Amino acid sequence: MKKVLFSIPILLIIISTGCNTRRAQKELPRIAIAGIAIESSTFSPAVSHEDAFRARTGDEVFTYYPFMSPDSGIINRAVWLPTLRGHAMPGGIVTREAYESLVTKTLNMLREILPLDGLFFDIHGAMSVQGLDDPEGDFLVRIRELVGTDVLISTSMDLHGNVSPRLAQNTDMITCYRLAPHEDAIESKKRAVTN
């Protein structure tokens, strides 16, 4: 009988510890990562296609961000939900087909992981797309329509990127690189994630 009575408090401690761990995990904010980046030159006769972005999805997205390594403190502060992140070298105007494909893939991935508490939107800010005046603003409007107005969106971008009214109205904060050359690009992205 004493063994049973002794075991009950231990069992209750184990159960409550497990519940607290589960509760803590549920309370971590759910933050998605998304973005496509290119510095476009509208004077170039070349065009940029989807393969130029070398898009990464899922956990491969973390390879863009050394500050999100498994041993970093940042990785444990939230439930990180990487969707699609593509980065192209500076090039010509992006084809509308490439843009729509990358945006659609991103939106579909975001739709699958809703609801969210936040989103890290990683762009360059100087993308040009055939037949579209404000691609980053367009992309963010489409994200905002999907995730809702209660989701905090933090955008990181190049210091000479274009902040259109639509981009400004649909993001909660913008963090720009401060240096040219951009020696602080990774530091700026980290600021955007931790602010």
- Radius of gyration equals 21 Å
User: What is the number of independent domains?
Assistant: 1
Helix and strand sequence: HEEEEEEHEHEHEH
Tally of helical runs: 5
Approximate helicity band: 25-40%
Outline the biggest β-sheet.
6 strands, mixed
The coarse silhouette is globular
Cα(first) to Cα(last) distance is 55 Å
Catalogue the unreliable spans. Answer: 4-17, 19-23
Secondary-structure arrangement, i.e. CATH architecture: 3-Layer(aba) Sandwich
> What fold name goes in the CATH topology slot?
Rossmann fold
Structure description:
- The protein has helices at residues 2-27, 96-113, 135-147, 165-170, 185-194; strands at 30-37, 40-41, 47-48, 56-57, 79-87, 91-94, 118-122, 152-157, 173-176.
- The protein contains five helices and nine strands; from the N terminus they run αββββββαβαβαβα.
- The longest helix has 26 residues, at 2-27.
- By secondary structure, the protein is an alpha/beta fold.
- Helix 2 packs parallel to helix 3 (135-147).
